[in-house]
Write a structure and sequence with these properties.
With 136 residues, this protein is mostly beta strands. The protein contains 2 helices and 8 strands, in the order αββββαββββ. Strands 1-8-3-6 form a 4-stranded antiparallel beta sheet, with no helix packed on it. The chain has a 4-stranded antiparallel beta sheet with strand order 2-7-4-5.
């Protein structure tokens, strides 16, 4: 007999209709990184939305996979701030399990998380849409 107790997936509409669980990470050094290719911010659950705030004076590259950052150049840039004036990306309503940062030495990331496990974004190329068109 099958189990009716299953975890929500990426198409679970209710997970995106409610407010997200807060996530914040500050003062990220994307220039030196925590991985080859940049700094990977790993979310504990799939995001409902996220925002990148560049507090540094160097532009910040943002990608959805390491190959998007380093190989295929599928990334976007959050401009450099002036003294005491941060620049933000605006809110992206995207379902991702991680983002990659590079360039700036002082970046904040804020997100609203769903209750969907991060493993739900895994593909045959790896986690978080790596290998998808426009991603990596």
């Amino acid at each position: 007999m099958g189990s009716w107790n299953t975890e929500p997936g990426l198409s679970h509409v209710g997970a995106y209709q409610v407010s997200g669980t807060p996530f914040a990470s500050g003062s990220i050094d994307g220039f030196h990184g925590n991985r080859p290719g940049g700094y990977e911010v790993v979310f504990p659950y799939v995001t409902r939305w996220f925002k990148v705030i560049n507090n540094g004076t160097t532009p910040c590259k943002v990608a959805f996979s390491v190959s998007g950052m380093t190989g295929s150049f599928n990334y976007f840039t959050v401009g450099k701030g002036a003294t005491d004036i941060p620049v933000d990306s605006g809110v992206y309503e995207l379902k991702v399990s991680s983002i990659w940062l590079s360039g700036s030495t002082n970046v904040d990331v804020v997100a609203g998380l769903t209750n969907i496990g991060s493993s739900r974004t895994a593909t045959s190329q790896g986690s978080n849409w790596s290998g998808s068109a426009g991603v990596g």
